[in-house]
Design a protein that fits this description.
The protein is α+β, with helices and mostly antiparallel strands and about 230 residues long. Helix content is about 20%, strand content about 30%. It has a 5-stranded antiparallel sheet, with helices on one face. Strands 4-6-2-8-7 form a 5-stranded antiparallel sheet, covered by helices on one side.
């Protein structure tokens, strides 16, 4: 864990060069670990998705354990139940968004055997939130947390981003036909507006089509830093 004092954050006009495309979906359930299956199905239905530099596919997410409901364990055998409000989200250059909004609605795919129909889509601009979270960030072969954080710090430095506050989560694996990909979650806080935007636009690490290295806004974590 890294933790330093907050700095005054400047405002920044947000250039809309990279956006999220949100699509309604009809799908009852998906495996908790569906990253490879979803990526493969979308690329098969719309091949240029796999060839577009910088395009990322968010994994489909539902709320965590709460109000007596327990989120299933991570894996390809466990299932998450989806609601009508659940969205399919892809991040890509704004210039390519019209093509995606035209191509995907009405598409029917199978994700690990589960039928999924893509509905209407809309654009969502990125923000400049100071706290960002990546559910999956490709880890090195070394599962050690300190090694992971050092590797992340080096990758962020190449983007001109300084770690001020950071928390990494436990390891998870994403299954593929070529073997499992080891990942960790990573939460960063105290980001300056330009750093936040740059990280969301460029992402971090490999396997963006499987949802890895895609950062999204997260609620504040000041209380974590004050914990004994």
């Amino acid at each position: 864990m890294y933790w330093s004092q907050d700095e005054t954050l400047d405002t920044l006009a947000v250039p809309d060069t990279i956006v999220d495309c949100l699509f309604a979906i009809e799908c009852r359930a998906l495996p908790v670990d569906h990253a490879y299956a979803l990526s493969s199905a979308l690329v098969a239905a719309c091949p240029w998705i796999g060839e577009e530099p910088g395009l990322g596919i968010h994994t489909v997410h539902v709320a965590g354990s709460q109000n007596g409901w327990e989120r299933p364990a991570h894996g390809t055998e466990s299932q998450i139940q989806l609601s009508r409000r659940t969205k399919l989200i892809l991040r890509l250059p704004r210039a390519r968004a019209p093509a995606l909004l035209d191509a995907l609605p009405g598409t029917r795919i199978e994700v690990a055997g589960a039928p999924l129909t893509v509905g209407a889509g809309k654009l969502r601009s990125l923000g400049t939130e100071s706290v960002l979270f990546a559910r999956y960030l490709v880890s090195t072969a070394d599962p050690d947390e300190e090694a992971f954080m050092n590797s992340a710090a080096q990758a962020l430095a190449l983007l001109g981003i300084q770690i001020r506050k950071a928390l990494c989560g436990k390891s998870n694996t994403l299954e593929t036909p070529n073997g499992a990909i080891t990942t960790r979650s990573l939460l960063l806080a105290g980001l300056k507006p330009d750093e936040s935007l740059r990280l969301q636009q460029q992402g971090l690490g490999l396997h963006r089509l499987m949802g890895c290295g895609i950062f999204i806004p997260h609620k504040g974590i000041d209380a974590v830093g004050k914990a004994p």
